[in-house]
Design goal:
single chain; mainly alpha; 41% helix; flat
Length: 123
């Protein structure tokens, strides 16, 4: 539909597919490969070392990427990279909230929310 126009585009009519009907019933054509599959395949390949001293290492692309990440975190002291590593290892830290209330206030607040959460009994 053209901007500001009330006439639908005849090439793309509204409600083209019925509810529950797939827009692509035959699926992806045979023989096609997704970009993700290509990248995963490349990551498994061996990295062609240009330095003859490192030629015997024969690391994969993914190993080289990991080496680069750790180099950035440790040697370059990149705090963002180091933080990402910790996040991948342990997950995001759990957030805490210190409201600075004493036990009596917390008990009162807890009772308040319990009473609010109770459904009203109507006889």
């Amino acid at each position: 539909m053209l901007k500001g126009s009330k006439h639908p585009n005849p090439q793309n009519p509204p409600h083209r597919f019925k509810k529950g009907e797939s827009g692509n019933p035959n699926g992806r054509p045979k023989g096609t490969v997704s970009i993700t599959e290509l990248i995963r395949g490349k990551l498994r390949e061996r990295y062609p070392e240009k330095d003859p001293k490192k030629f015997k290492e024969k690391k994969s692309y993914v190993e080289k990427i990991i080496d680069t990440i750790f180099h950035n975190a440790i040697e370059a002291k990149d705090e963002k990279t180091l933080s990402k590593i910790w996040t991948y290892i342990d997950g995001q830290p759990k957030a805490t909230l210190d409201i600075g209330a004493d036990k009596e206030s917390l008990a009162e607040l807890t009772n308040f929310f319990r009473n609010v959460a109770k459904p009203n009994k109507q006889d």
